[in-house]
Design goal:
single chain; alpha/beta; 3 domains; two-stranded antiparallel ribbon; 5 helices
């Protein structure tokens, strides 16, 4: 490998991306479930084009596609790097104000927007592995959006690296950013033929160096339980409490 001249852009990108509200909505029948997810999609497509990814675009369903052409004569599989743009509907992703702790030295981390929100060192063993590193957190009033704008920023930085270092040989790389992963619809409208990848890697993991090669089904079900009401004077054998029925269902799932 020849000498490389490259400065990482991942942190700068991440800090910009998290300020764009991309919260998905499980109650919406549309795809994407919220139009604001396209706000980040437009930014990403434009940045990819500016890098030189000629086919980068945002489609009507809120998916961003792009291709980094192969620069090797070897016949190698086409791989895809994928990440989702939406954030969880459980907590707001609007007006995110990230804080950066440089050269973390250990100890509790108080979130500045809400002093009652404290990431306690003794409750989070993973913090021990971050001593000496920079840590980015929310201010405590919103989600940060690291799930999965961290993955988005990583892929964008990797694209920037490959395009600016043609001496690093690689096959065709496909880029895919998806909406609505948090509500279980992340790949519902992916155009597999247009994507054209032999293998895909989702950048949505845990600690550095962690590779997951299996997952579980996260499908959900909504159960409505109607109990049977009866006057307590003659309820024996007639009244059925909905909570007791629910408890019996949960017990059988074990």
């Amino acid at each position: 490998m020849s000498s490389l001249t490259f400065s990482h852009t991942v942190t700068e990108r991440f800090l910009r991306y998290v300020t764009i509200d991309t919260q998905s909505d499980p109650e919406s029948p549309h795809s994407p479930s919220t139009e604001k997810q396209k706000d980040l999609g437009r930014v990403l497509a434009a940045e990819l084009k500016a890098m030189g990814v000629a086919d980068a675009h945002l489609d009507d369903y809120g998916y961003v596609y792009g291709t980094i052409p192969a620069n090797t004569d070897k016949k190698v599989p086409v791989i895809c790097f994928c990440s989702h743009m939406d954030t969880s509907p459980d907590v707001t992703g609007k007006d995110v104000k990230p804080q950066v702790l440089r050269n973390y030295r250990g100890g509790d981390i108080t979130l500045p927007g809400d002093a009652s929100q404290v990431i306690r060192f003794n409750e989070h063993p993973a913090l021990k592995n971050q001593i000496g590193n920079d840590i980015i957190t929310t201010d405590g009033t919103t989600l940060l959006g690291a799930d999965n704008k961290a993955g988005v920023a990583e892929i964008m930085d990797a694209a920037h690296f490959f395009i600016n270092n043609p001496d690093v040989k690689h096959g065709t790389i496909k880029i895919l950013f998806t909406p609505d992963e948090e509500i279980g619809r992340g790949v519902d409208n992916v155009d597999i033929n247009k994507l054209g990848a032999d293998f895909g890697y989702t950048m949505d993991g845990e600690s550095a160096g962690c590779v997951e090669d299996e997952t579980f089904s996260a499908d959900g079900a909504t159960i409505t339980i109607n109990g049977v009401s009866a006057h307590p004077g003659y309820a024996k054998g007639k009244m059925e409490h909905a909570i007791k029925i629910a408890a019996a269902i949960v017990e059988r799932l074990a």
